[in-house]
Design goal:
Largest sheet: none
CATH class of the domain at 26-103: Mainly Alpha
Number of helices: 6
CATH topology of the domain at 26-103: Helix Hairpins
Strand content: under 5%
Bound molecules: magnesium ion
Helix content: 55-70%
Length: about 120
């Protein structure tokens, strides 16, 4: 079993044993995901850009961002399940489309800014 599949099974076992699946409708999971993304943002809020990486790469900062990113991943996985999306398959497909959209011959070292790509890389 690969690490993602193992994590997926552990997450579902965790929620099943608590009977929390009844609360895991797509909208509730999305709101929980956004809340957790907000908690990641909170860790960087009011910190100078130059200090963010150092603050979050060791000690308490590293522990905090690890926890919050884990929360984000768990809610993302649960949301994907709730709307019947295979995250690994969808991400591979999206990466493949982005390879075609942003060929390295044209894009190496150039950020996909909104000025050049009104829809951005994430669209
Ligand atoms: Mg959290």
């Amino acid at each position: 079993m690969d690490r993602f599949t193992e994590l997926h099974a552990a997450l579902h076992d965790f929620t099943r044993r608590r009977d929390w699946g009844q609360y895991h409708d797509p909208k509730s999971l999305l709101l929980a995901l956004v809340g957790e993304v907000g908690e990641v943002a909170e860790l960087m809020q009011w910190t100078r850009e130059a200090d963010v990486r150092a603050d979050l790469s060791q000690g308490d900062g590293k522990a905090q961002i690890s926890d919050e990113l884990a929360d984000v991943l768990m809610y993302l996985m649960l949301l994907a399940d709730a709307v019947d999306v295979d995250l690994i398959e969808a991400t591979h497909a999206k990466l493949e489309r982005n390879e075609a959209r942003f060929p390295t011959s044209q894009r190496q070292g150039n950020a996909p800014s909104h000025a050049r790509h009104p829809r951005g890389i994430g669209r």
